[in-house]
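FIELD: query
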Amino acid sequence: MTVWLGIVTTIVAVAGAVIAYFQFVMARRKLMLDLFDRRLKVMEMVERAVGAFQSSGKVDGQSFNDLLTAKAAARFLFGEDVQDHLKALQRDFAFCLTYRDAMLADPATANREALIDQKHQAELRIVEQPAQLNSIFGPYMKFTDKQTKAWLPW
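FIELD: result
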């Protein structure tokens, strides 16, 4: 009887270990999916801000706020490369928002020609963003755990 009790105890312990392992795998996959969803939202906010500029040709307050919200949300989700890219994009948006066409049309504006050239360069950088976003955000947007075997967590 004692031998059977030992065997049953061992079987229950192994079953518990297997269940705990599968719970670990599922929790890891859920964490990766949640992280992917949060990163995707940030990328969509940046795309929305850039898309608003591309459709109107101007930076408005709403698109600038979308970009700032995305930049704040990206702080802990992405590496320094994305942070630096978003800072540069924020500077371009802020420059375009500060120096509007009406202000630059006034001949009395100091350094008018230089400001027009700077604004043009900032606008060109914003227009190039859709092609750059995939290469900047792409390494962080991979969901690599979707095809693994259930018994292999890596």
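FIELD: remark
The two ends are 41 Å apart (CA to CA).
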